[in-house]
Structures are given as structure tokens and as C-alpha cells.
Amino acid sequence: GTAFVVQWDKVYLQGKEDMGSFTFQATLHSSGRIIFGYQEVPVPVLQISASQHPVKAGLSDAFMVLNPSPDVPESRRRTIYEYHRVELDTSRICSRSAVEFTPLPTCLQHQSCEMCVTSELTFNCSWCHVLQRYL
Prior knowledge:
Layout: E1 3-11, E2 22-29, E3 34-40, E4 58-68, E5 76-87, E6 97-101, H1 113-117, E7 127-128, E8 133-134
Membrane topology: Single-pass type I membrane protein
Family: Belongs to the plexin family.
GO cellular component, one term: membrane
């Protein structure tokens, strides 16, 4: 009830099955913490070729747009637009390692307009959901 875990077990790089398999997890905690745990990383991430697909590790804010494919009328092409990214240093990802992301405070944690406008956060939080206006 306080965490959601997704595990990728025995994942092989296409055409490079002889390199070994990867096993890793992403854990999303109700507190907002995110932990990536790497159980098995058979080769350094820096040695994974990015020629067919970009090699990324970290978090990003993004949205996806579905566009009709000109080649096949019934299908749609997915385009992902990233607008903020926190990248991990891939040279530090190895077997039996973990990375933890801790959320920064935001206005969303305030329970009233008073708490929001008197907040000492470093940004100017002034939206009041009760009055539906900026203060």
C-alpha cells in the first residue's frame, strides 16, 4: 500500500544475448521517492550502442502525441516530447547498485490558501484552488 515496484527480469539486448541479461527495478513510493535498483548489469552502460535506440537512465517529464501514419492509415505513430530531464551518470550504474530520487517540496502539499501564500518555498506559490484565482 505504500510502494509500487516494477521489475525487469533477465532482459537481453537485441542481437547481443551473449553479453548476458539485465535485472533491475523501479520503486515508486507514496511519499514521492523513486528508487532504481540494479541487480544485474552484465556490461557497463557506456558500452551499450545507441545506434538503434538512445541509451538513457534517469527521469523525465514528457508527453506523447499520436499522429496518423502516412504509410498505414489505420495505425498511429507515437512521438514523445521531453521537456525536463534528470539524467544519471551511466558510468556509475553497475550490478548491485541503487539510485534514489527524493522529491522537492511543491505547492501541492499545502492544504489551504493560507499555507500556500505564507510558504517559505523558493518559488512564488500563490494559486488558491478554493477561490480558483491567483492571490
